[in-house]
Design goal:
Elements: E1 2-8, E2 38-43, E3 46-50, H1 56-63, E4 70-72, H2 78-81, H3 88-94, E5 97-101, H4 103-112, H5 114-117, E6 129-133, E7 140-142, E8 145-154, E9 157-164, E10 167-170, H6 178-181, E11 189-193, H7 206-216, E12 220-224, H8 233-237, E13 244-246, E14 252-255
Parallel strand pairs: 3-4, 4-5, 5-6, 10-11, 11-12, 12-13
Antiparallel strand pairs: 1-2, 1-14, 2-3, 7-8, 8-9, 9-10
Length: 256
């Protein structure tokens, strides 16, 4: 059994958006208040985090996550990586953090976080990481679990999703190639991004996400990477199919 905790379910700007007077940004419902996307996947004594955006410190304090055994990165955009420095407390307690990403993403992180990932320039107080390159076409083992990378497209940018048992996490999706869809059969839980109601060049909107869910037929699907333009959590939830839910920050679910 896997337990999945949603650390954040918002888009790159979060919700509320700075200076916005949009009604959703003014909502008092905690489910309409979204930090940047990230999840903790737990089984037995393992805690795996997917993505660490600029809200990572706040998310870890809120969740009371006791440790992080590895960090998986989907892609290099700031809302998924800007919190990398904040793994320091875990590293100081546990030792170097295994960091999984594609070669392209790791190259990007080495430039942006040179003081962490470059041994020659490493700052003495910086966190230590053990880099692990993910080949999008090759499953790998982590803590006795097979991890299956799923390569999707975020406009023209390849993004990695991860399948663990019958759970799969896919964010920043616009298109899933047919060969990758073959890896998404018989899912118990799918987490899928759905930015807003109106179409977008690099993200699925709600209509497109629902069509993809109907095609893939997971038992349950939780929508994430939601902007304020998706609408109010309570109102949108009433319109969704019985197996589809809007995720929200702090939500915990299980996958068997």
């Amino acid at each position: 059994m896997l337990t999945i905790e949603f650390l954040g379910t918002g888009t790159s700007q979060g919700v509320p958006v700075i200076c916005s007077t949009h009604p959703v940004c003014l909502s008092k419902d905690p489910k309409d208040q979204r930090l940047r996307v990230s999840v903790v996947v737990q089984w037995e004594n393992t805690h795996l985090v997917i993505d660490c955006g600029p809200d990572f410190r706040q998310q870890m304090i809120r969740s009371k996550c006791p440790k992080v055994d590895a960090l998986f990165i989907t892609h290099e955009h700031a809302d998924h990586t800007a919190g990398l420095d904040d793994i320091r407390p875990f590293v100081f307690n546990q030792g170097a953090m295994p960091l999984y990403a594609s070669q392209r993403v790791m190259n990007n992180l080495q430039k942006r976080f040179d003081y962490i990932l470059n041994d020659e320039n490493k700052y003495p107080g910086a966190p230590s990481v053990n880099t692990r390159i993910v080949d999008p076409k090759t499953p790998f083992l982590f803590r006795q679990k097979e991890i299956i990378p799923i390569e999707v497209l975020h406009h023209n940018l390849p993004v990695l999703g991860y399948r663990i048992d019958d759970f799969c996490y896919l964010t920043d999706v616009k298109l899933i190639p047919e060969q990758e869809k073959e890896k998404l059969t018989h899912l118990d839980v799918l987490v899928l991004s759905a930015l807003r109601i109106e179409p977008h060049i690099s993200h699925l909107n709600l209509e497109e996400a629902l069509a993809l869910i109907e095609e893939l037929k997971p038992k349950q699907c939780y929508l994430t990477h939601l902007s304020h333009l998706i609408g109010f959590h309570e109102e949108v939830s009433k319109t969704l199919p019985s197996n589809v839910f809007l995720a929200y920050d702090t939500l915990k679910i299980t996958s068997y």
